[in-house]
Write a structure and sequence with these properties.
Elements lengths: L3 H21 L8 H17 L6 H27 L4 H10 L5 H9 L2 E5 L4 E3 L7 E5 L4 E5 L2 E6 L4 E2 L13 E4 L3 E7 H10 L3 H33 L5
Antiparallel strand pairs: 1-8, 2-7, 3-6, 3-8, 4-5, 4-7
Helix pairs in contact: 1-2, 2-3
Length: 237
């Protein structure tokens, strides 16, 4: 029959393999509380099992693993509880990145900077590479295609989200039409951020697709109003 030491050993193996498997399948993150806690539990159980058949080298490994796990948990706790966000950052994150973890959210905000823009400042130029992403917190901008203003964007909207990640050409020129407070991150900074933190990429994709969809809906509304206005104009005699 199994004794307590053997049960502890089997339990340690189970938690070791289980946590590593969940990490490889993307269920757990390497810098999460859960992953560190499971490794701490696994190392503790294996260490208990060694008291039946002592092995110094295995004990050193388990004690070292326990120590590293405790340090990892403490690090995540300190980083999470020391993070601070401004009201502007909180509004941006809440509206477009609600599921982004605090540590990744801080990295995203640190990839750019906040600016005060004046009337006429150009955020993108039609046909030129988009070298930055912008987010309007206040104010607004005109969207110009071929020298004609076709739409306007206001607070809560991204500028350049369709092409910023690959520095593709801008489909329109975007110029501020009033004093504007906006967040901007260069394309190079965003690409470095995603390379180092792949978990951020899906959040960016979701935010960008949602913003593009809202712009398309707004454009369709403007076009529908324009067509209705045209149809109601009486024909000349």
């Amino acid at each position: 029959m199994l004794d307590y030491y053997q049960v502890a050993g089997y339990g340690g193996v189970f938690f070791y393999l289980g946590s590593y498997g969940l990490l490889q399948f993307g269920v757990l993150k390497g810098n999460s509380y859960t992953y560190a806690a499971l490794n701490l539990l696994a190392a503790g159980l294996v260490l208990v099992s060694l008291f039946r058949n002592w092995n110094l080298f295995s004990a050193i490994i388990q004690i070292s693993w326990i120590t590293l796990s405790v340090v990892g948990i403490a690090r995540v706790w300190v980083l999470t509880n020391m993070l601070r966000f401004s009201d502007e950052e909180k509004a941006l994150l809440a509206s477009h990145f609600p599921a982004l973890r605090p540590m990744e959210a801080r990295k995203l905000m640190d990839a750019g900077a906040w600016h005060h823009g004046d009337i006429g400042d150009e955020l993108t130029r039609q046909g030129a590479p988009v070298d930055a992403l912008a987010y309007l917190a206040t104010g607004g901008a005109d969207i110009d295609v071929g020298g004609q203003i076709i739409a306007q964007v206001g607070p809560g909207q991204f500028i350049g989200e369709m092409a910023c990640m690959n520095s593709g050409p801008a489909s329109a020129s975007v110029r501020l039409n009033q004093p504007t407070r906006y967040f901007s991150a260069s394309s190079d900074a965003l690409r470095r951020l995603v390379r180092r933190n792949p978990d951020i990429a899906p959040h960016l994709d979701l935010a960008f697709s949602g913003n593009i969809r809202s712009k398309l809906m707004a454009t369709n509304t403007v076009l529908e109003k324009a067509m209705k206005a045209r149809d109601t104009v009486p024909a000349p005699d």
